[in-house]
Amino acid sequence: MRFHRLTTILRTFTTSLGHRSTPIITKTASRYPSSSPSRITPLKAIPGLSFLGSFFSSTAQSQNQDNMTYPDQRSDQEWRAVLSPEQFRILRQKGTERPGTGEYDSHYPAQGVYNCAGCDAPLYKATHKFKSGCGWPAYFDALPGAVKRFTDSSFGMERTEIVCNNCGGHLGHVFKGEGFPTPTDERHCVNSVSLRFQEGESKAKA
Ligand SMILES: [Zn+2]
Fold first, then answer.
1. What percent of the chain has pLDDT over 70?
2. Which H or E run contains 170?
3. What are phi and psi of 77, to 5 degrees?
4. In this protein, which residues make up the domain named MsrB (predicted)?
5. Closest Cα partner for 164 from 106, 202, 112, 124?
């Protein structure tokens, strides 16, 4: 089992890297030396981010999934069968949608739940959502136990990645201490592509 998982990780890793075999973290860090959190938004805003996205995905994936098991253990092949190419790029390869383009960026229903677009697990309530102006859907909290956090050291800076706790699908990042007038001191910055809105709250646990 462990060998199988390792093989899967290695296959993913090498697929993401193509033929490169040099340490990707070092290359990425040296190319983008800034370590200031304030650089995060401008970096995401760069058009044509695909090559950055592939670097980002491989480093984050190798760090985060070594010892992780999720209830939903579908393989990449199985995910490709049910996700759109864009959903697969973001959820399974830790990509990022372009700011201001997401379906739920300016979506503020009075009630309802945002589920994982991969496995349909409920993640955020409509009442968790707030206007951050950052270009991605922003939530000040998640449903209890719905989201898992990892340290993401890609691009030479330290951020906190958030994934669906049921399938490991990449959601985005969480930032603290920005001064938004919300009940918490956090902003869950989530890709719309990673979410599917459902009216009503019947699936929410809390
Ligand atoms: Zn999920």
1. 65
2. strand 170-176
3. -60, -40
4. 76-200
5. 124
Position 70: which residue type?
Answer: Y
Give SS3 for 186: strand
Domain residue ranges of the chain, discontinuous segments joined by +: 1-206
pTM to 2 decimal places: 0.68
The yes-or-no answer on residue 134 being catalytic is: no
Considering 116, 164, 167, 189, which one is annotated as catalytic? Answer: 189
DSSP 96: -
Q: What is the CATH number of domain 1-206?
A: 2.170.150.20
**Ligand 1 centroid from CA 111, angstroms:** 21
Angle at 163 between CA 28 and CA 195, to 5 degrees: 110
Q: Is 118 left (phi over 0), alpha (psi -120 to 50) or beta?
A: alpha
